[in-house]
Q: What sequence folds into this?
């Protein structure tokens, strides 16, 4: 079965999707899965906190906004996409609403820009 098993006060429970509210150990400290991940630009040491900031960093690394047929993100207004050049298959897709920016997006950016970005837990 998928999920996280916890043992608290003599009872074993399976939590399907632990949230930070539920993520506490018996001694009251937060469990390791409740740490928040952030994308860090290595050269400046700053946490990326907006799509505008991310776009500035990516443009400086040679990435360009991707417009498919004149429409942003192949007609999907909920996505912002970047590509290195029309000849390459490298494509980064991030949600246009930065609140929906998840660790999968962060790791996609890190894999394609290993020396310039890191994912850290805070």
A:
């Amino acid at each position: 079965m998928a999920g996280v098993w916890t043992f608290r006060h003599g009872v074993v429970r399976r939590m399907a999707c632990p949230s930070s509210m539920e993520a506490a150990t018996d001694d009251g400290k937060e469990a390791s899965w409740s740490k928040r991940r952030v994308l860090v630009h290595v050269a400046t040491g700053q946490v990326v906190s907006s799509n505008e900031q991310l776009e500035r960093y990516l443009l400086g690394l040679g990435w360009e906004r991707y417009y498919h047929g004149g429409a942003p993100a192949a007609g999907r207004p909920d996505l912002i996409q970047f590509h290195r050049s029309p000849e390459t298959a490298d494509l980064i897709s991030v949600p246009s609403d930065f609140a929906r920016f998840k660790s999968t997006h962060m790791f996609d950016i890190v894999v394609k820009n290993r020396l310039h970005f890191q994912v850290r837990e805070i």
Q: What stands out?
A: The beta strands are 4-8, 11-15, 37-41, 46-47, 64-65, 67-68, 71-72, 79-83, 91-95, 117-121. The helical segments are 51-60, 103-112. The first strand starts at residue 4 and ends at 8.
